[in-house]
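Dear Dr. H.,

I hope your travels went smoothly. While you were away I took the liberty of generating a structure for the chain from your last submission, since the lab meeting agenda had it listed for discussion. I wanted you to have the full record in hand beforehand rather than looking at slides cold. The sequence, exactly as received, is reproduced here:
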Amino acid sequence: MEKQLTKERIWTKDFVLICLANFFIFLGFQMTLPTIPLFVEDLGGNDQLIGFVVGIFTFSALLLRPYAGSSLETKGRGFVYLIGLAVFVLSVGSFGFLTSIVFLFAMRVVQGAGWGFSTTASGTIATDLIPASRRGEGMGYYGLSGNLALAFGPSLGLILTGIISFKQFFLICAGLGMVALLLSSRITYKKVEPRQKKKKEKLDLYEKNALKPSMLMFFITFTFGGIAAFLPLYTAERHIAGIQLYFLLYALALMATRAFAGQLYDRKGHRAVFIPGTLLILIAMMLLSWLPNSSVLFVAAVLYGLGFGTVQPALQAWSIERVPINRRGMANATFFSFFDLGIGLGAMMFGQISHLFGYSSIYKTSAVSIFIAMLLYFYYLYKDRVSVVQQR
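The corresponding predicted structure, in token form, is as follows:
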């Protein structure tokens, strides 16, 4: 068994390149995450408009992910990935030249298209490169590249927007995306034989084997819409310092769990990681709804990072666990579609909730969403147990 594991290497040249490319595109993206709401405010927008500008990005990505997943099997991994990165770079670079929320709204749609294509492709490319026996561990390492970007991106974005103009800032973010584009052009992409379609086959929109973990991911990422879009504004309202440190602590906690959680998933499956991870996220949301001082903010950051870092790679590995190689693109598209839908709906709904009931209500609602995810998970376990009994 040990000999087999040593032969099945994770850290090949192409895997290193996809991780590096993923780091730079995520760094450019994460730097914009807490700063887009500030940019909307600078253009004269309110909380409701912030929610829509943040949310429309994810809906755009959501609508195009099924097409991206299908294109990965017909046009090739590299074609979809490079096109997605190029669109992302051009759209982000344009932000600094915009003076109207209407035009920003339109370019966020374009950015979402590029993001949907690039992230669906990169996740699929990573799964192609990782040995099946170490998939949970490998996806943890791959996710770590995005988490490293998350460790520095939001804080760096907030610092830079305080000392340079938005135009200069968004050009820097676009430049980071260009680095990802150059790195990805050096990858040798795996060729996959396209599956034979039947004449009367329905429109291919999702992979059914990925639906369970994807639905659970939806209720978890629903909470992230409230953090990305409104936590900087919430802490400012309460005069609580340290929002930059929040994102750093969150990312460091996220990274600390990645490889460990992936290996635990490989050995014991999702049952060993899902409930502990979601419990930590639930506690974090309750702490944010209370939020009396910076200490509680930092504890919530660590708990959220530990929880999300435990759950996300396990659910992504689960989504492709029983999927043939020529359906991995669609499985990843399904998973990230629900991922995006959670963030998008969360941001839009929380914009309305904060306008009507205040920022703390965002995190109370988020706690309910996590509780629903836990109930749904137990329902899945029950249905699986009944199915096994009936087969006997």
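Two observations you may find useful: Residues 8-191+207-391 form a domain with the Growth Hormone; Chain: A; fold (CATH 1.20.1250.20). The chain has one domain: 8-191+207-391.

With kind regards,
E. W.
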